[in-house]
Design goal:
about 180 residues; elongated; about 70% helix; about 0% strand; Serine Threonine Protein Phosphatase 5, Tetratricopeptide repeat; mainly alpha
């Protein structure tokens, strides 16, 4: 008789546990990227950097872009143009249009690396091709400072550019 009561009690507890687990909690769990983006948006840059860094290292373009912005502006990290360029380049190579535009601007101004009109033109051209009107405007403006050969080289680089896909990221160990 005691054994049957123990079995009934155990079954009742299992049913209650199953029902409790399946009930909605009311709050959906956010992804690490959403948490990082929320921290960035509210100006909690120390927490944003802590959350964004592993995501950026894993090839998440938005995380890479946010890290670049933080280094460019010195938000929660020391201002470091070279580090900003590094993160913009990673995000740009993942196809992030805003990163392509910002990287082009940094090449045009020589911020974080030597000034390079060819690479500035290439990245402005790519951002323009992906819908960024200011990319077209700045590409056309920088062309006035370039020779015909330089323009042809920049156009060739833009035509040959391919985004860094997930598989290329994996096989290149994050170096694309």
């Amino acid at each position: 008789m005691i054994a049957i009561k123990n079995i009934r009690c155990a079954l009742l507890m299992m049913v209650l546990a199953a029902v409790t687990v399946s009930l909605p909690t009311g709050a959906q769990q956010r992804s690490p990227l959403e948490d990082a983006d929320a921290a960035y948006s509210r100006g909690d840059f120390a927490n944003a950097q802590k959350l964004l860094r592993p995501l950026g290292d894993q090839g998440v373009a938005l995380a890479q872009y946010r890290l670049a912005e933080m280094y460019l502006k010195g938000e929660g990290v020391p201002q470091d143009f070279a580090e900003a360029v590094k993160w913009y380049r990673l995000a740009a190579n993942r196809g992030d249009v805003s990163a392509q535009y910002k990287l082009a601007t940094m090449y045009a101004n020589g911020e974080g690396m030597p000034q390079d009109n060819i690479l500035a033109h290439m990245w402005f051209n790519l951002s323009a091709a992906h819908g960024r009107q200011a990319g077209a405007t700045n590409r056309d403006a920088i062309e006035r400072l370039m020779s015909g050969g330089e323009i042809a080289e920049a156009q060739k680089l833009a035509a040959e550019w391919k985004p860094c896909t997930k598989w290329l990221w994996i096989f290149s160990r994050g170096n694309c």
